[in-house]
Amino acid sequence: MTKTVKDYIRTIKDFPHEGILFRDVTTLFADPRGFRIAVDQLLSPYAGLDIDKVAGLEARGFILGGAVAHQLSTGFVPIRKKGKLPGRTLSQAYTLEYAQAEIEVHDDAFLPGEKVLLVDDLLATGGTAEAGIKLIERLGAQVVGCAFVVDLPDLGGRTKLNAMAMEVHALCTFEGL
After folding, report:
1. DSSP bridge pairs for 55
2. For a 10 Å CB count at each end of the chain, is N or C smaller?
3. Is the pLDDT of residue 177 over 70?
């Protein structure tokens, strides 16, 4: 039987809070076949498109985004938690499932008109992705797509990104929280 990306993802109950089913992609990353399948499927809709850079959201988006950028032969830009980047940055506040946070990008990371693919492991409420998109657009670049391994549709992230006219590509979904 052929395994899918979803088969490589472990679910951990009650993490980080009681009642949460945490979708752990580290088991996917640890398996060479699973990781290859995920990277290939993430980049598949974008192969052959004119993409200048891949942006990865901290932290698992760095792992996936770097691999996707390598396969697309393009540059990679990390979008990090506030205070983690040296040099001049732009920041964007957003709401997490449980708190408020800020992410940053170097103020010279994207050039006006560049086409960017945003990558992360999981789409939940869409707050982090929305903040990343806003940072990219503030620098004059265009987000051509948002690629995720996991979509949690019950948390509304896809709806939020679609309302921003963003194309969302997810490899699998998990219902519930």
Report:
1. 77, 118
2. N
3. no
Using the predicted structure, report yes or no on whether residue 144 has a pLDDT greater than 90: yes
Q: What's the CA gap between 123 and 98, in Å, rounded?
A: 15
First-to-last C-alpha distance (Å) of the chain:
28
Mean pLDDT (whole number) for 86-108 = 92
Residues with catalytic annotation? Answer: 60, 97
48 Ramachandran zone, left/alpha/beta (phi>0; psi -120 to 50): left
Average pLDDT of the chain? 96
pLDDT at site 54 = 98
The sign of the torsion formed by the CA atoms of 76, 82, 84, 89 equals: positive
Q: Is 8 helix (H, G, I), strand (E, B) or coil?
A: helix
